[in-house]
Amino acid sequence: MPIGMITCCLGVLLGGWLGSAGRRWIDEGLRGLLPRLFGLTAICNGLLSVLKAAQMPTVTLAVIAGGWLGHALHLERGVVRALGRALERVPRPAGFDMQQYVTVVAVFCASGFGLYSVMVESISGDRAQMFSKAMMDLFAAVIFGSSLGVSVSLIAIPQAAVFTLFFFLARLLMPVMSGDMLGNFIACGGVLTVAAGMRMSGIREYPLIDMLPALALAVLLTPLLAPVFG
After folding, report:
1. Which of left, alpha, beta for 202 (phi over 0: left; psi -120 to 50: alpha)?
2. Distance between alpha carbon 107 and the CA centroid of its chain, in Å?
3. Do the beta carbons of residue 117 and residue 130 sit within 8 Å?
4. Are 120 and 129 spatial neighbours (Cβ–Cβ below 8 Å)?
5. I want to staple 145 with a disulfide (CB 3.0 to 4.6 A). Which of 20, 81, 82, 84 is the partner?
6. pLDDT of residue 151
7. CA distances to 62, 67, 203, 219 from 215, in Å
8. Which residue has better confidence, 2 or 63?
9. How far apart are CA 84 and CA 172, in angstroms?
């Protein structure tokens, strides 16, 4: 039973509702500040993950090639359209920012730390990292729920879908993943987390969804480029 994964998804569901319900007690200035502060902490966490890279040139190539592939496939544009249709009947607060919402979806569903934690729970049954992710997501959902409303709670649905997929894929992937492959995967997730933090902080609008293929490329390119960069 993936208790850690379920706890994490429930944390997003509850946190989004709490943030939306408490919106009236948080002034507009603070609602604008909190996401930027969370973006700052995301940048710090992402930098720590980048340090786990086994081959930084491989990670760099994966990010560049993955971003190009995602842009060519119009991934972010498609996700924005899909989310727009999904939220048509959901009440949204005035000034709802779809771009910020897309960023939050990517952070909750596709962070390198989150996916790695799911895989660890699947293989070893160790839920400690997943519980840490659940705690972070709970407070993050409260923060974003205060500005984006109850729609943040609904992110628990795609998060559960993505995490379930990786929970079962882990049993196929982890036995064949080397330490370098895993390190580059985590580092690539860290680069995406830094990009998400910069986007949330209003520093730079990186196409975060377009960059997601980089996670797969970081794993695939590691053994191919090991003779060059290893």
Report:
1. left
2. 3
3. yes
4. yes
5. 20
6. 93
7. 7, 10, 23, 7
8. 63
9. 34
**Count of all residues that appear for the chain in the document:** 230
Q: Looking up tokens 């592939």, which residue turns up?
A: 69
Q: What is the pTM of this model?
A: 0.84
Taking residue 26's Cβ as centre, other Cβ atoms within 10 Å add up to 16
Cα 132 to the center of its chain, rounded Å: 14
Instruction: Give the model's confidence band at 123: pLDDT under 50 very low, under 70 low, under 90 confident, else very high.
Output: confident
**What is the predicted pLDDT for the residue at 229?**
74
User: Tens digits of per-residue pLDDT, 126-183?
Assistant: 888 888 889 888 988 998 898 888 999 999 999 999 999 989 888 888 778 888 998 9
d(CA 173, CA 188): 17
Whether residue 79 contacts residue 102, with contact meaning beta carbons closer than 8 Å, is answered with: yes
Which single residue is written with the structure tokens 């409260």? 142
pLDDT in tens, 36-61: 888 888 898 889 889 989 999 999 99
SS3 for 145-185 is HHHHHHHHHHHHHHHHHHHHHHHHHHHHHHHHCCHHHHHHH
Q: Please answer whether residues 143 and 18 qualify as being in contact, where contact means their C-beta atoms are separated by less than 8 angstroms.
A: no
How far is Cα 77 from Cα 46, in angstroms, rounded to an integer? 25
Contact between 12 and 137 (Cβ < 8 Å)? yes
Q: How far apart are CA 225 and CA 229, in angstroms?
A: 6
Q: Is the dihedral of CA 57, 118, 45, 157 positive or negative?
A: positive
**Residue 157: both structure tokens together:** 């649905």
